[in-house]
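In the previous chapter we treated chains in isolation. Here, by contrast, the input contains two separate entities that must be folded as one system, with a combined length of 288 residues.
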Amino acid sequence: MSDIIETLSKDGLTITVSRSLRGGVTIRWTGISDARQPELVLGPFMKRLARDYKGEVMTIDFSAFEYMNSATVSPIIQFIKLLDAGDTPTVLLYDTNVAWQRVNFMCMKAIARTLKHVEVRGTSSLPPPPSSG
Amino acid sequence: MANSFELTIPIVWRHIRDIRRRVGEALRAHDDEVRLAAAMVAAELVENAIKYGESVPEMPDATLRFEETGSEVRVEVANGLTSPEAARRLDELITRVHRDPDGAALYVARLQELLADPDASGKLGLYRIRYEGGFQLASRYEGQVLTITATRGIP
């Protein structure tokens, strides 16, 4: 269970910020991000999120994110850097069954190794296989 | 029989989403991995054409040529460019990306540059085309027209 705190919707991209009843903040990305200068909208929004939730346990869930252009990568990386600098324990979630996510977040894992508070985790949208027993 | 089309693209950003959709539809008989990769490649190349292209007499708009032969997908985007120096720098970058055996190390290095420098931007798309899309890149520059070609085999 979680309560939605706020939502950013712009040109097919939706970012929903919610708070779990067990504590912690989840930022869920859905839709597509293909703006020419995504940093103009994402930069100020994510800077504020990094400030407002500094030090809280944060999950950024990209697993239902459909598409991003390469211009979106830089604002995401800057957001992660801000969270790390603010000592915000952060987990990035991606779907291991989605090829573009798997490839990109493998690289994000390499980046996360250079940060103190950021971890990258794969999750699966597929149902588990039936048990043989 | 080849599955192909050619589009003239006004240098306007809003057409990019249609291009992704059009390429995705042309490859609907193929699996998601190929279809989504080709759509991403077409969108990234057209984004670059719109960002950096110029209207010149030989090519007032950008063009996209798409072809799928059953064994290969080919995406070719052309745009006007008046600076031979810019074309040379781009060709050098493409050669560097092309020579990398898997592209992953170059892609991570570029992400690290973006992490270190908030003002750094651009050029990630070409690394992404090579690494994420699995496409080979080539460029040519003739008569103020820059043409970037991306190809990959279809399993």
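Chain B has a mean pLDDT of 91. The radius of gyration of chain B is 15 Å. Compare these points with the single-chain example from earlier in the chapter.
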